[in-house]
């Protein structure tokens, strides 16, 4: 069965489904192609959210297939997020979801003329919210980030964000916990057997986890990182350090020694194969 990529059914997913199905599909393919027993997963921002869902709800799979989870600019709970747009979305997420469905803007930020016009219509009632939501992607600091690469980066980013993923983040802003997607009371009863969506059992995550955060990150606030650290089993947090980086700095920083030195050191510590990256560069 195949679905029309412009249909609501095709975009009926959020970060939880990515963590339960998409990420494991990638992992299985990599293992099949390389013959390795486990892989190291490195995610940034939403790439970490997916694994927080997946590793909590499908913890045995991740335990058996991932030797280390490196979470760059980790995002789970957003209770202390400093981006105003997310607070606006948190208040009006039901209206935003209705607008998305009304105008058929399921694949937000897609690069074609129809989506551009649809997003404009979608943003009319929430103009300032749309502007400020996009503004957080440009949190680049010229003293930290390579702005010349930022222009290249932002030419195609953000692109292809499912509307449910945006709504999912908005739902978690006004909640001190990290919860599963809120489908509404009736559908919640069907899916979760409760009116409210349950909290994600982060305490069930059993893979070694490296938390790498930014002191200048307005999206991944330090208070939320502290909360996240406290929810994870203490023995799984094998590295936890904040650097003078913003949210996009993890891709655009002038100084990437935090990765080449600290993160690579943790990766080598938890690797489950005999590959040595230094061998490749010595040839």
Overview of the structural elements:
The chain is of the alpha/beta class and 283 residues long. The chain has a single domain (15-274), classed as 3-Layer(aba) Sandwich (Rossmann fold). 49% of the residues lie in helices and 11% in strands. It contains 13 helices and 6 strands. The strands form 2 sheets. It has a 4-stranded parallel sheet, with helices on both faces. Strands 3-4 form a two-stranded antiparallel ribbon. The longest helix has 20 residues, at 15-34. The radius of gyration is 19 Å and the shape is globular. The chain starts with 14 loop residues before the first helix and ends with a helix. Residues 113-122 and 131-135 have low confidence and may be disordered.
Task: State the shape.
Answer: globular
Helix content: 40-55%
**Helix-strand pattern, N to C?**
HEHHEHEHHHEHHEHEHHH
Ends apart, CA distance between termini: 47 Å
Mean pLDDT: 84
Adjacency order of strands in the biggest sheet: 1-2-5-6
In the CATH scheme, the class would be Alpha Beta
Which structural class do the helices and strands define? alpha/beta
Tell me how many strands there are: 6
Considering the protein shown, what is the CATH homologous superfamily? Alpha/Beta hydrolase fold, catalytic domain
Annotated CATH architecture: 3-Layer(aba) Sandwich
Major sheet summary line: 4 strands, parallel
